[in-house]
Design the sequence.
């Protein structure tokens, strides 16, 4: 397994654990640290890991992609 995937998984578990423990012991700071960790550490690492080998132009709406969509739509006849 890749190190970034392991780090993301560990941080995810730590953030979820922090949130759950915060609810159990009624500590808003613990819940807040869990949420901050989730959104400022886990989400960016996960996004980087999933998108690092992708071409962003495949997901942008360009004239070429619009033509491809129209061609596929005519071919499939929904």
Sequence:
């Amino acid at each position: 397994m890749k190190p970034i995937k392991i780090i993301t998984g560990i941080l995810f578990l730590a953030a979820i654990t922090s949130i759950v423990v915060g609810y159990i012991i009624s500590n808003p700071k613990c819940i807040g640290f869990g949420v901050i960790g989730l959104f400022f550490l886990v989400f960016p690492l996960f996004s980087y890991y999933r998108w690092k080998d992708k071409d962003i132009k495949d997901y942008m709406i360009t004239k070429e992609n619009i033509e491809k969509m129209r061609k596929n739509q005519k071919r499939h006849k929904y």
